[in-house]
Records
---
Amino acid sequence: MHACGHDMHITSLLAAGELLVSCRDSWNGTVVLLFQPNEERGADAQAMVDDGLYDEEKHAVPKPDVVLGSHVMPMKAGYVNTRKGVFGSTAISYRVTLFGRGGHGSRPHTTVDPVVLAASTVMKLVPGRRIPRPPLIEETSSFPLLYNDENVTELIAHAMKDRFGNKFSPNAPISMGSEDFGNLAISTPSCFWNYGGIDPQIWDDVEKRGKLAEEIPGIHSPFFAPVIEPTLTVAIDAFAASTLAFLRCV
């Protein structure tokens, strides 16, 4: 079971759009809400760009001046963080095909057991095994480096600080996780941030016992279930505050 909070991402962006529309008389500019499919495979952000996402004649979507994005994380709900520069890692996935050879159990020396071969490849625990045929290695997906533009992030940090006070940090740790968000902003300045989704009471209790690493489920865990509030309100407000920071006020 895959749990990564995308229901929270969709809901919060829809609500942020509604919030921005409700105060439309107070700002000028164009806001595009982008709901990207297939983020986990690192595929469809680039596919959307390749399909002409920013070609106004094809999809009537103007090329943005800035691209903003966020993710719910196993942090204390109510808190938001980001950082200038590198924020997340790049990643490349491969499919590796190992080639065995069948035979009879009474003559194992004439066979190549693919199970043992795979274990040897991964764990390096079976020395001396002969690999009669090199494995086939194929790239299946890739994620660009997640890099926050310094000037954009500085402006957003001020907006976040004004909205969230000491619950916002501009010094988030660099994540070893990857996002294909960067494919949407190859030549456009961008900023990505995280916000917490763990019930504050649960977080405080676990933290008091020194068990955060052991008991707080991470994203993709079947037990990762962001609490609706204050997570949703924080996600909405973060989208709205960061967007309004770039729209010229009337």
Note: The CA atoms of residues 225 and 234 lie 16 Å apart.
---
Amino acid sequence: MHVDTLSVNLLQAAANYSYGSFLGTIQPKSSAQVISYDARFNDLMGNVSATVTDQQDWDFVHEAGIYLPSTRSIYATSQTTTLDDPINITVIDSSTYKLTSSFTHPQLRMPNGGTAYNDTHILFCVFGDLDTPSTLALWDPVTNISTPLLSSFYGVNFSSINDVRVKPSDGSIWFTDDWYGKYEGLRPPPVLPAQVYRFDPVTGQLRAVADGFDQPNGLEFSTDYKTLYVGDSGYVHAPKDFNATRPNTIYAFDVTEEGGLSNRRVHAFGARPFVDGMHLDARGNVWSTSGMGITAWDKNGVLLGEIRVDMNVNNFLFVPEGVLLLAFSKLLLIGCGVRARKEEGW
């Protein structure tokens, strides 16, 4: 189905409150609507279409969204609101974008975000539960063997490890730990601040590299790996606890040669809540979920545009045809000109 593009008059949006307010209320005419704030976004997107490739009667796709070249499959995690309903690993066919299988893993108690690891494994962020610690775990989709890499901060429980990325040059693992496990009733009360960490899987060295967040969530490196972007989704705590005065912000940090972070700054603030899953495209533009859709900014934080849809989206991934949205009970393929960075493995 063809998707229309609305090009925004920025001067009118700035001066005319009614016009600016109207932009916030635009709903897709069918399943999607492109809103362009910059002519570069029109060029980036090209001709746009929207296709629901799969739909189930339960929330089978919620987080992760990882393409693994060795199996030619996409891996996601399902949604839950209770410990009685364990989170599944969902496998998606990368040629049809349809559900292949979905299952629980006995050693991966409530998996959430993740990333590809050495092209053959998935590195999962595992929330844990009231008795099981939150961990980083390697999972082999061929053998179904799971191996824990990290289970505490020097003996202190993580709260709920949320998302993770690997820096290829040295193999270091960077991840966020937030309090959503507690807010959702899955984890005990936190005993650590909500922070960003760096872990060296060769030496075992672990350290906090950034604090001062409400809820650090998605994270992603720039294409040259000199910048780390971290989304703070403090706007939402519990499922019904929303507060627009809390962060809905993407921060940028310089990655130091010593493996630390410096020069914290605001990269972007999302007008539409809330920032969660985050990826960069081949041009280095920063994309994040924004509630019912996804939003793009350039590498300087200039707003480029949005893809609004008629369903909630928690994560997404770039695929050869464009963007695949993980929309809880649906997979929505946005056909467009956006392309994945080479590290995504396509």
Note: The two ends are 24 Å apart (CA to CA).
---
Amino acid sequence: MAYLYMHKYQRFSEGKNQVLDSYVCCSYSPLPTATALEVSEVYGTKICPHLSVWQTLALASLTLAAKATENPRRLSTIILPAYSLLNVSPPAPPLSTSSEQYDALRSTLVQAEMMLTRVLGFELRVPNPFDFLPRYIVRATGSIIERAENYDTWDKDEKDELGVIEGRDTRLERSCRARVVAAVKDYRLALLFPQRDVALGCLFLALQERGLELDLDVASWIDEISSGKVVEEDFNEVVDLLKKVCIESTDGR
């Protein structure tokens, strides 16, 4: 969710032709203080000189995403670790919540949240591939599950004894989720395609990776799993782009 917020902010800033246009998304190299202040004046908020614009945006996106998914966090649990990570070399003394510097960082983050909320049009619940992935996996593996024993009737001890795991712990779902994470980091996959298409593309590639064959031809499979809501042409574009993004993600590790 946080990545989607950042992509939307990037699109907004590019549309307004602001000074951030020269900085690509997910490039968090510090901006000169004067430039950060210039951008903050445009958006009606002040940027703390200890943070670059993109660092501030990343933290605001993270806190808003936590709230949008009903997992709110105290700002101190975001600010303190972030401060430590941003001051590794040379190492800085631990930040105290009673210090003026912490107050400045907290004030900056609160104002950045307000700015980002306006940019998002107060629509914090942005659709993402994780919204569609669980039911797509259930539909795609339905024929396999039907032939298997119903483990839901087993108690925890029986499952533990034979190593029965939950659906989200299977290699297939972990592979899907890893691809979704790589996808939402990419501006094109995050904003230019319906998120159900991205979810289906991630599932398709994960099934291929596991060597699981489709019961139907690709076009019929797309139609069945998505209930006719994904267009084959768009699906093929998503799959091609996902392959490139996943390769880049693996090479960048």
Note: The two ends are 22 Å apart (CA to CA).
